[in-house]
Each structure stands twice: as structure tokens, then as C-alpha cells.
Amino acid sequence: MAIIDARIISQLLAVSTPNLSDALDRLGIDGAPQKILPIYPCAKIAGPAATLKIVPDGKAKESTVLGTLRAIVKGGAGSVLVIDASENPAVNCYGGVAGATSKHHGLVGCVCDGVVRDVDEYKGYGMPVYGKGIAQQSVRGRSSCAGYGMDVKLSGVRVCPGDYIVADDNGTIVIPAERVSEVIEFAQKVKATEERIIAQVRAGMDPVEAHEKVNYDNMLKAQAS
Fold first, then answer.
1. Total-model pTM
2. Cα(192)–Cα(56) distance, rounded to whole angstroms?
3. How far, in Å, CA of 32 to CA of 154, rounded?
4. Which residues contact 195 (CB under 8 A, 6 or more apart)?
5. Is residue 222 very low, low, confident or very high in pLDDT (cuts 50, 70, 90)?
6. 38 φψ region: left (φ > 0), alpha (ψ -120 to 50), beta (else)
């Protein structure tokens, strides 16, 4: 079961994925998987990763259906289900029953490197789902489960169980658990700086001057203050 630090979750939800991406750039962390977007207009999510790996049928012995349910139960309340289905990108990797089970067990959402189905059902019970697209076909006979609670990847970005996942309208972010505090600290600085620039522009300051005043162009460089 995931260990949930409410303070960290609150801080992550208070900044955007672009703020966090800027922090990752500043700190030299690879944590911005591309094209994993909201499947429907849904809530922003943040939580530790509960991981699952799905592969084409025959490449692993366990049923995708049963493996997914075990991954959900193992992840537990407050976690984000992270599905690596990159080896089977055109086949559904998360459906309505899995979504309902996730909701029942208290998971805050799902992010997947793959396509999903049963979007109308997610909407009905409010399960945020992020992925690369939508499909209608079943996983049955098309995929198998290679494991859960293991290191996986999202668009080539490594995700370890317990790493922090944040997803919003802009995309998805992966933060190594051991570096979450420093990522949050710099993301907060980015947000505050951008809010200051906007406020000064709205107050009548020349926009170039407002940017130069805070050294905005250089704030992601290692030598920035």
C-alpha cells in the first residue's frame, strides 16, 4: 500500500505540471513524459505511483484483467495507477471495471502509456484518466500482464513504485520520490515569479522590463539564484 504524505500531495496540487517541468529542467531530472493527456475533462491528480506493465498476448503468463486488479489492490488508497502499455499501443489497457475498482479502493486516478476505453463510465463515477488515446476493443486475447509493483516507463521516462505522479490539463509529470521536496521548492519559485511578472504587466510595467527584472530567461539555468 502507498504511504501518503498529505502535505506533499497538497503542495503538488498547488502548482501546475509546467511549473514542475521547469523545476525538473532546473534540477536535471528526466520526468516529463510526452503526450499523456486527459482522456476527458477530469480532475488534476497527484499521488505515489502504483505500477503495472502490460505486454502483447503470449509475452507473459498472467491475465491482464487479473493482473490489473491485483495492481490496483496493491497500490491502495491515494495512489495513482501507472500503466506501461507501450509494447501494445493500439490495445485498450484500462477499462470500466478497472476504473470502478480503482475508485472503490481509493486510487486518485490512472495515467497510462497506451489507450483506454469505457470513457463514459469514468465520467459517471469520476475517475480521472490520462493516456494517449481511446480504443473500443477488449484486452482479452490481445495482451497479458508482465508484472506490477515494478519499474516501468511512461513515454520513455522511468517510473519506480512510489515515485510521485502529477497530471493536469497540460500533461503528466514523474518525480523521483527522493527528490520531491527540492522539485516542489523550485516549482513554487517558478509559480511565484510568473505571478509577479503577470501582476506587474497588468499594473502597467513594460513586459520586457518585467521579465528582465526577475531574470526570467535564465531562471532555469544552474547558476540562477
1. 0.94
2. 45
3. 9
4. none
5. low
6. beta
